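ugh ok so i messed up the first submission bc i forgot one of the chains. this is the corrected input, ALL of the components this time, i swear. 223 residues overall. if the numbers dont match what u have on ur side tell me asap before i send this to the collaborators (the ones from the other lab, u know who)
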Amino acid sequence: GQQVMQIPQYQHVQEGEDFTTYCNSSTTLSNIQWYKQRPGGHPVFLIQLVKSGEVKKQKRLTFQFGEAKKNSSLHITATQTTDVGTYFCAGPKDSSYKLIFGSGTRLLVRP
Amino acid sequence: DAGVIQSPRHEVTEMGQEVTLRCKPISGHDYLFWYRQTMMRGLELLIYFNNNVPIDDSGMPEDRFSAKMPNASFSTLKIQPSEPRDSAVYFCASSTNSYEQYFGPGTRLTVT
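and heres the new structure output, hopefully the right one now
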């Protein structure tokens, strides 16, 4: 079945270092979404990418959708302690409204 | 504008008891999703509704789980009888037809 995989599972960085998480789908996606879940919290929508090769920025966060629309990445420049949490990518199953979530990358930031 | 509301926030029950989780989606959202999150299995979609009609319930673990959406502003997820392996955080989310989903705060269920 359709799968969405994320690496790494964990990343522990020093505050100020950069961070990147990668997402790969077993099938071509119509769009990809990114969510952030703080410890003890709920997933919060960050962004949606739709176009092949699309790059979007939100302050220190840069999101990219691959040319083949099967992979994506989230890059955080100069991490801060407020970036702590788990970052999930998610893609729709067969272009439906059912989302397949990746396993998430847990980011820990040392102050 | 209120977000997705879930109740209770925490539920502790004994094995064999019935558990009912409740969700109020964001007004105007016509899609509603129920998820379960565990360390082992991550975030799993259980069922989703469109305009109060169940569209995909393939993620519902077994017959002990049932979900209803009697109107546009209310949905329930029921587990009967509950088992320890049902212990998890259950999230409700809602959306319009723009794909992005808004999650509620979740219900942490512990079955002893």
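quick check: The mean pLDDT of chain A is 95. that seems consistent at least. Chain A is about 0% helix and 55% strand.
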